Amino acid sequence: MLNYMTSARGLLLVALASFSAPSFAADTGHTAWMLTATALVLFMTIPGLSLFYAGLVRAKNVLSVLMQCFAITGLMSVLWFVAGYTIAFGTDGVAAGPYLGDMGNMFLANVSMDSMRNGIPETLFVMFQMTFAVITPALIVGGFAERMKFSAMLLFSSAWMLLVYAPVCHWVWGGGWLGNMGLQDFAGGTVVHITAGVAALVAAMMMGPRRGFGSTAMPPHNLTMTVTGAGMLWVGWFGFNAGSALAADNSAAMAMLVTHLSAACGSLAWMTMEWIRHGKPSVLGIVTGMVAGLGTITPASGSVGPAAAVVIGLSAGVVCYFATITLKNTLKIDDSLDVFPVHGVGGILGTVLAGVFCAPGIGILSGNGFSDGINSVGGQLYVQIFGVVVTFTFALIGSWVLLKVVDSLMGLRVDEEQETEGLDLVLHDERGYDL
């Protein structure tokens, strides 16, 4: 009798479990972390990047930058739903073609509440990747700030995300040819930072400098706003890098640690360079160095240890500092908010250094972060450099073509009188400040 009751109770528990826990359910711990990471990456754009950029421009253009970042967030989200996701990831990232995903997921046709991807709900994977598709074109805003037409910005950003960002995303993360070659880009050194940095450089060169560049001082109008945005970027970047593990595991924890160390070292290195060269460290310098450290560790955050992260961060602070000086003072290119020397150069540096310090498999997640990685240099370094060259070239050509097309259709730049008056009033009929 006792055995019968025990068996009946066991059957009842199994039946109840079958109703309460469907077979398609994801790991709740991984899902909870990825929900958090997704929110953090969106937090990087709105409000982090928005405030960071808005504080760096002049007062007459503060709303234009905030408007651009906000509009890009909305527009890129819809375009990702329509076609961006299927171009980048298709309906099956493993079996997708080498250059583009299939078109089977237009309008997310095959994404349901029950579908899974990389061990998490596919809806969550779509949303996480959507936040990357949002922030990447938003980064480009800094290259043409204070002089591009709002309509031209919308058209260029839309075409660029679909025709430049999404294909590169597929090449590296969606089952494409660069990823299959073994390119180490954990969270976007090539996909995000090189593509955005190169696009910003091309835009700055094609549009020419702001009126008065090189002869008139153009200091940031509100560094308090910039520092606030920078702090949000620092925190949000944990979702960007640690979230790219797509799980709440050891890899995510190491990615978070190395991300923080690189940001800290990048800020201190840039501050030190300014202190040595100019006698005083600046607030603008320390926050810019922090962003350089974050951007540079991004591709390597899943394959290096803490000691390597310190080297990467220090290198970022120094290399990106001199890249900024060279671009503006020597080459006289008005990349308004230093997108290419910080993100482009940082992405290149980080992608190459990932090849120097990474180890086979999941990377050097133990030891001192140097010895194992140094032994793996060679073929991997070649793959990293090849990936940089390909991404740089594709982003350069693609951005140039798209900017040419947009310029022929509607013109890229506001006229001289409008630029002098400021984009806030000219394009949006509003002022950032009424004092």
How would you describe this protein?
By secondary structure, this protein is mainly alpha-helical. The chain has one domain (about 25-430): Ammonium transporter fold. The chain is built from 16 helices and two strands. Strands 1-2 form a two-stranded antiparallel sheet. β1 (about 115) and β2 form a beta hairpin. The longest helix is centred in the C-terminal third of the chain and has 32 residues, at about 380-410.
Characteristics:
Ammonium transporter fold, two-stranded antiparallel sheet, about 425 residues, disordered N terminus, single chain, mainly alpha, 16 helices, globular
Summarize the structure.
By secondary structure, the protein is mostly helical. Helices cover 70% and strands 1% of the residues.
Number of DSSP E strands: 2
Number of helices: 16
Biggest β-sheet: strands ordered side by side in the sheet: 1-2
Mean of the pLDDT scores? 90
Indicate the low-confidence ranges by residue numbers: 1-8, 10-23, 361-375
Report strand %: under 5%
Principal-axis shape equals: globular
Q: How many separate structural domains?
A: 1
Structural class given helices, strands, pairing? mainly alpha
Under CATH, the topology is which?
Answer: Ammonium transporter fold
Helix content: 55-70%
SSE layout:
Blueprint: H1 2-20, H2 28-56, H3 62-89, E1 116-117, E2 120-121, H4 122-144, H5 150-173, H6 177-181, H7 189-207, H8 223-242, H9 250-278, H10 283-297, H11 306-330, H12 339-357, H13 371-375, H14 379-410, H15 416-421, H16 423-428
Antiparallel strand pairs: 1-2
